[in-house]
Structures are given as structure tokens and as C-alpha cells.
């Protein structure tokens, strides 16, 4: 992994990067949905003001990756790992893995016992990363996204 990569908390200076890095992968494989517009255009209101967190990966001070921890209203889950995106120009450098570990540690610090995520099986590198991070597939969860065809969880406590 590149030594010039650092993870910083979201600030308004990264609002456009948060939206652009997510739109980039969403429109490449799917289409923007209503929930995408809500969360990507209003990260402070939709994520941060509700007790969530957004991490930004910087490569030589350029925002090249993002990942959010969104408070979950799902039973048994305190947070959802969501809106992870890494610029194609920075892929293959371990940035997604770094963001994933960072978000998991942040979730633990916030008292999260089980972390949730949803994705699509066409995003094989992402699914493989989630599995390497310890996420396992679950069934039966409903999603507000048409593109979601896999839900996963990560248990963060031993109880």
C-alpha cells in the first residue's frame, strides 16, 4: 500500500469528492437512485448529524476514496457500512481495505455490536473485500435500493 495514503474524517471540503467518488461507480454499473441523491447531496444532514461518520482516503492530499458509517434503523444493527468508493485511478493500492478497517474500528469506538452492509454481486472486488474484512452474507433483509442483491453483517463483539 502507498505510504502517502492517509484517512481523515469528512469535512465540507470533501463534500464534492464524496458525491463524485460514489457517483462514479454507481453510474458505471447501475443508475442513481433516490436514496443516492439524498445521501450524496446531503452527507452532513443524512449521515453526520444523525451520529454517523464519513472517512476520506487521501493520496498525496487528493481525495481518492470514501466510506460512510450510517446509523441503522434495522433491528440488531447499530450502523451500516455504506457509500464506499475508490477512484479507478487509485484502485489496487489497498485503499478500500484501509477504509474498511478504519470504518470497522470507528464502529467499535461508537459501541457498534453488529455492522450491516448491502451491495450487488456484480461488484466482485467489493464483495471479496467485505469477506476479507469478516462480513458474512445474511438473508431476508429488505433494501431501499433496487440494485442491492446481497446483504452482509459483521459481528463486532464476542457476546
TrEMBL record:
Which stretches make up the N-acetyltransferase domain? 16-157
- Keywords (A to Z) from UniProt: Transferase
Q: Which GO terms describe its molecular function?
A: N-acetyltransferase activity
Keyword presence, Transferase: yes
SUPFAM superfamilies in the cross-refs? Acyl-CoA N-acyltransferases (Nat) (SSF55729)
Signal peptide residues are none
Q: Which Pfam families match?
A: Acetyltransf_1
Q: What is this protein called?
A: GNAT family N-acetyltransferase
Native species of this protein? Flagellimonas ochracea
What phylogenetic lineage does the species belong to?
Bacteria, Pseudomonadati, Bacteroidota, Flavobacteriia, Flavobacteriales
